[in-house]
Fold this sequence. Notes:
This protein is of the alpha+beta class and 233 residues long. The protein has nine helices and four strands; from the N terminus they run βαβαββααααααα.
Amino acid sequence: MAGDDVKLLGSWASPFSERVQVGLKLKGVSYNFADLDISPGKPKSPELLLYNPAYKKIPVLLHHGQPIAESLVILEFVDDQWAGEGPSLLPKDPYQRALARFWAKFFDDKCILPLWMSLWTEGEKQKGLMAEAKANLSIIEGELEGKKFFGGEEIGFVDIAVICILYWIDVVQEAVGVSVLDSERHPAACRWMKDLLGAGGAVNGLLPPREKLRAYFEGNKEGFRARMNALYG
Ligand SMILES: N[C@@H](CCC(=O)N[C@@H](CS)C(=O)NCC(=O)O)C(=O)O
């Protein structure tokens, strides 16, 4: 807020960086955005290596020059630092708070890699990853049953964590010509995603335009395929 010095090292093309941007925007916090080029083959920025030597990954938030890394950790920091500004991202009740952290962690640990790697693999390997993604995402979907948002009536921590990734998966699957996320396999997630992104939705207009993102991944698809298989294949 006024007097705060907030800088985000990120990339417009990163869903993890986007989680932080959505959190800051919902809270109404002004920030400077350093849009780093994380395309495959590009050297890492010295600023990133300086502030996140442990993981060497974006996003990194600098608050008065103090670095914080890891998107979920940053989101929690944003919620605490600007408590009282905009909506609370995490529930106040300790048990509900713990549950929100649990589901965000489960999504990160069990859903992201099989969803993402389904896009960059083929044959039996891809089939196995798709089955794993479907099984784990169905568990997450169970959490949405009878609710508008993961957080209940208002958008919260888990919604932000999940929407950024699923939006990317939805766009990138189009760019690479693979289908891993659809309303037949994941009806609750697709319904929830449509509500959030559509006219009047809580993140409508906050995420990068679909066409821009699709073109970026389409243009870099061979580089991403090689890099993802080298890292996780
Ligand atoms: N667990 C991390 C993941 C961050 C991450 O994977 N960042 C990617 C961009 S999407 C990155 O920095 N990639 C650059 C690289 O690995 O060289 C978080 O939640 O912040």
